Amino acid sequence: MKRIRVLVADDHPVVREGLKKIIAADGEMEVVGEAENGTEVLKLLQEKKFDCLILDISMPGESGLVITKEIKSLFPHLPILIVTMYPEEQFAIRAFRAGASGYLTKTSAPTELITAIRKVSSGGRYVSSSLAERLTYYLSGEGKKLPHESLTDREYQIMLKIAAGKTTAEIAEELSLSVKTISAYRTSILEKLHLKNTVELTRYAIENGLIG
C-alpha cells in the first residue's frame, strides 16, 4: 500500500517533532518534508510531491491563511490541514475560505490527527460537528456579517493579538514585521471596526467570542 506523504510546516521544532512521531506511529503515512515558514513550504512543494500539507496559521512572515491561498493557486489539488493553537471560532471559517481541507487545534488527540490526515488526503474535508454547523451557516451567506469579517486575514490575526494584550513590539517580533507596520495595521483595524482604542477593541473581541 502506498504511504501518505506528509509535509509538516510549523515554526516550532518541538511541535514538528511531536507531529512526526504521531504520524510515524501509523504504518500508512510518513513525514517526508518539514518547513518552518512559508518560503520553505513553497520551495519543498516545487521539489517534491506530497499528499497532504499540515500547516500552522501563525508563522514568521506571511500568515498561514495567506500562504494557504498562495499554495492553492499554485497546487490546487494539494490538501491542506490546518493544525494550530487557535480555537475554531477564531480562524476555522477563514481557513476554509482560504482553501484548507481541514482544521484541527493542537489540543486534539493524536488519533484525531491521523483521522484528519487520512480524510483530507483522500479528497475529503475534516471538520468537527460544531464547526460543520458554523460553516454551513457562514458559507451559505445567511449569517449577518459582523464588522470583523471585513478585516483582511493579516488584520484579523493582528486584531486577536492586540485584544489578547500583546504590545505592538511583541506582535512585530512574532510576525517578523516592523513596529511601524503593526501600528499602521492597528489604525486600519480600529477604523474598520469603528472603535476608538485598544480597550474598545478588546471588549469587542470578548463580546463576539473571539477571545476568552
Explain what you see.
The protein has 212 residues and is of the alpha/beta class. The chain is built from 10 helices and 5 strands, in the order βαβαβαβαβαααααα. The longest helix has 15 residues, at 179-193. The N and C termini lie far apart (45 Å). The model has no long low-confidence stretch (mean pLDDT 89).
At a glance:
This protein has 212 residues and is α/β, with parallel strands linked by helices. Helices cover 52% and strands 12% of the residues.
Q: Average pLDDT, to the nearest integer?
A: 89
How does the overall form come out from the CA principal axes? globular
Give the SSE order as H and E letters: EHEHEHEHEHHHHHH
What's the number of helices?
10
In CATH terms, the superfamily of the largest domain is Response regulator
The level-1 CATH class of the largest domain: Alpha Beta
C-alpha Rg (nearest Å): 17 Å
Return the domain count. Answer: 2
In total, the number of strands is: 5
> What is the fold named in CATH at topology level of the largest domain?
Rossmann fold
Major beta sheet, specifics? 5 strands, parallel
Low-confidence stretches: none
Q: Percent range for helical residues?
A: 40-55%
Percent strand: 5-15%
Termini distance? 45 Å
Question: What is the CATH-assigned architecture of the largest domain?
Answer: 3-Layer(aba) Sandwich
